[in-house]
Amino acid sequence: MNTLVLTAHPDLSSSSINQRWFKALSNVTGITTRDLTAIGGPAMQFDPTIEQALLQKADRVVLQFPFYWYSSPPVLKAWLDQVLLPGFAYGPGGNKLRGKELMLAISTGGPAESYAADSYNSFSMSEFLAPFQQTANMVGMTYLSPFVLHSAMGSDQALIEDSITSVISHVTTPELPVAL
């Protein structure tokens, strides 16, 4: 399986979690990793021809990012806007992603229990992530269960180390459940 991991972190070098995931995933056979902030630069400009060619080679696409104001960092939105174009991802002739898999690998600052209707964040993670699921639906991809590490900012080193093994396992597991 060819997997493409697109990491969207505003400053990957300062990250305690996403940087370690990125480095670890970069060393796994069959995984291609891309730091979207480094590629897009301050203007967040992407070459759709290059990005689309990489997408076409992938069987599974992983969007890796810190959960950032209840969504992804702006660089991922810029990438989506510039790469998932009509005629490629949707619309007439836009079937190039059909049958591929989409997965999210996310770190959050808050604890898991804070993502519920009766808690601090008022909504579940699946509700917050619905736009990504709909993006997968729109372009004909299968939306797989996300990998979410909660309380990442306060994590001790043992939890961080465990998360590296866990994210690699999740990303490379061939038969993951489809997210509901």
SS content category: alpha/beta
Number of domains: 1
- What do we call the CATH homologous superfamily? Flavodoxin domain
Element string (H = helix, E = strand): EHEHHEHEHHEEH
Q: Number of helical runs?
A: 7
What is the residue-averaged pLDDT? 94
Give the tally of β-strands: 6
Question: What percentage of residues falls in helices of 4 or more residues?
Answer: 25-40%
Ranges where pLDDT stays below 50 over 5 or more residues in a row are none
| Fraction in beta strands | 15-25%
CATH class: Alpha Beta
Could you explain how this protein is built, in words?
It is a single chain. 36% of the residues lie in helices and 16% in strands. With 180 residues, it is of the alpha/beta class. The protein has one domain: Rossmann fold (3-Layer(aba) Sandwich). α4 links the parallel β3 and β4. α1 packs across α7. Pfam families: Flavodoxin_2. Keywords: Oxidoreductase. GO terms for molecular function: electron transfer activity; FMN binding; NAD(P)H dehydrogenase (quinone) activity. This is Flavodoxin family protein.
Task: Chart the SSEs and their pairings.
Blueprint: E1 3-7, H1 18-26, E2 31-35, H2 36-40, H3 48-57, E3 60-66, H4 74-83, E4 101-107, H5 125-128, H6 130-139, E5 142-143, E6 147-149, H7 157-172
Parallel strand pairs: 1-2, 1-3, 3-4, 4-5, 4-6
